[in-house]
Write a structure and sequence with these properties.
mainly alpha; globular; about 300 residues
Length: about 300
């Protein structure tokens, strides 16, 4: 049951912000890569800096209260945080928007495998079977993608693996330290900014063509600042939604975002979309929806048994 009805203007605002910002950031980043050749890792660092700044502002506005955490315990999490953003951005840079988005859908089965093999968590047969349409759909879309390339596939695969590991660690660290996502991100973001800043000179030019200190056109600067602002808004709106609605609402909005992103890639960047790819998209979406449905039923059953 929803904690608040859809008529609640605050809930509607949160859902609208999350929907718009999540879709917008994909297109802003893709626009920077395609039209300006903006350096990927540098953009990631700017996102982290903006997120750190935004969280400091939220702290002073008493939106959340920070909790003291050991830096060395947060460091591995910050490393995977850097890795998943860098690799997913590289995937976006080297793949079509549709393939990029579908590859991210593989995070769910990857997390399931990691938790089953290394964290001794067990899942029902119905949950495991939903991995079949998700996986087949992603493979089908990638195979028929006319812009399929080895580099993009490698980045997409690394992005899925590191993202899955990061999300598993976030879950375990939140339980270990008894913190929420914003309290954890408050420590992660600054550390990640410093880590990324240190490696930028080894992977991307700093001065001259393609470097951050070259004279960028005003359009690139405006798009970059907009992307950084939206990156923070994505994190903040997710926190609001989870805190004020149910998992059903958030998952349904996620499916809608997926469809909008795919259509946006087709119309904005002329990413080809063949009939076989549409079949792949439908299979992946059906698997995700079934996974969500089965998982939520199991959670509700578990809560009922706990109450009894």
């Amino acid at each position: 049951m929803e904690k608040a009805g859809p008529s609640n203007p605050f809930i509607s605002l949160c859902l609208g912000i999350n929907l718009c910002s999540s879709v917008t950031i994909v297109f802003l980043n893709k626009w920077l890569y395609v039209n300006y050749g903006f350096p990927n890792i540098t953009l990631t660092c700017i996102h982290f800096m903006m997120t750190s700044l935004g969280l400091h502002i939220c702290r002073h506005l008493n939106i959340f209260s920070p909790k003291s955490l050991p830096i060395m315990s947060v460091l591995p999490l910050s490393l995977t945080f850097c890795g998943f953003v860098v690799f997913t951005n590289l995937s976006l840079q080297n793949n079509t928007v549709g393939t990029y988005q579908l590859a991210k859908a593989m995070t769910t089965p990857c997390i399931l495998i990691i938790q089953s093999c290394f964290y001794n968590q067990h899942y029902s047969t119905k949950i495991k079977l939903t991995l079949i349409p998700i996986t087949v759909g992603v493979i089908l879309n990638s195979y028929y993608d006319v812009k399929f390339n080895v580099t993009g596939t490698v980045y997409a695969t690394l992005g899925v693996l590191v993202t899955s590991l990061y999300q598993v660690w976030v879950s375990t660290k939140q339980k270990e330290f008894q913190v929420n996502s914003m309290q954890l991100l408050y420590y992660q973001a600054p550390i990640s900014s410093v880590l990324i800043l240190c490696i930028i000179p080894y992977f991307e030019p700093v001065f001259g063509e393609g470097g951050i200190f070259q004279p960028w056109p005003s359009g690139a600067i405006i798009t970059m600042l907009a992307s950084a602002t939206v990156a923070f808004s994505v994190n903040l709106s997710i926190f609001w939604i989870i805190g004020n609605t149910s998992p059903v609402t958030y998952n349904m909005v996620g499916h809608f975002k997926f469809c909008l992103t795919l259509l946006g890639g087709f119309f904005l960047f002329q990413d080809p979309l063949r009939a076989n790819q549409v079949v792949g998209v439908c299979m992946t979406l059906s698997g995700i929806i079934l996974y969500t449905r089965f998982k939520l039923k199991e959670q509700q059953l578990s809560k009922q048994q706990t109450k009894v």
